[in-house]
């Protein structure tokens, strides 16, 4: 697991995309508020909330998957050299 704590919005392009999706869904929900028909206000707000939250959670899931891919599969694995001091002469092997 990476211990790098320097995280900026430019390093995770999906964070602004998730925030923009959240804002777009809320704006669309507020725009359609007058033409909701027979739907109750509380049900309309719940649908808006679930859609906006789903957009943000989806973006976070993509970022987490992408970070895991970069950290565990995209990097070449360095060769580990292990030493065994219990052997005669402290011989090392890889």
TrEMBL record:
Where found? Mitochondrion membrane
Q: Name one GO biological process term.
A: mitochondrial respirasome assembly
Q: Name one Pfam family in it.
A: HIG_1_N
Identify the domain of life. Answer: Eukaryota
Q: Which residues form the HIG1 domain?
A: 1-78
Alphabetically sorted, this entry's keywords are: Membrane, Transmembrane, Transmembrane helix
InterPro entries, alphabetically? Answer: Hypoxia_induced_domain (IPR007667), RCF1 (IPR050355)
Which ranges does the record mark as transmembrane?
Answer: 14-33, 45-69
Gene Ontology CC terms: mitochondrial membrane
Q: What is this protein called?
A: HIG1 domain-containing protein
* Native source organism of the sequence: Macaca nemestrina
């Amino acid at each position: 697991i990476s211990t790098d704590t320097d995280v900026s919005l430019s390093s995770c392009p999906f964070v602004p995309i998730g925030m923009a999706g959240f804002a777009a869904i809320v704006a669309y929900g507020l725009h359609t508020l007058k033409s909701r028909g027979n739907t109750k206000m509380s049900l309309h707000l719940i649908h808006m909330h679930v859609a906006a939250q789903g957009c943000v959670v989806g973006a976070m899931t993509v970022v987490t998957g992408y970070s895991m891919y970069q950290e565990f599969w995209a990097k070449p694995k360095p060769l580990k050299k292990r030493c065994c001091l219990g052997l005669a002469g402290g011989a090392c092997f890889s």
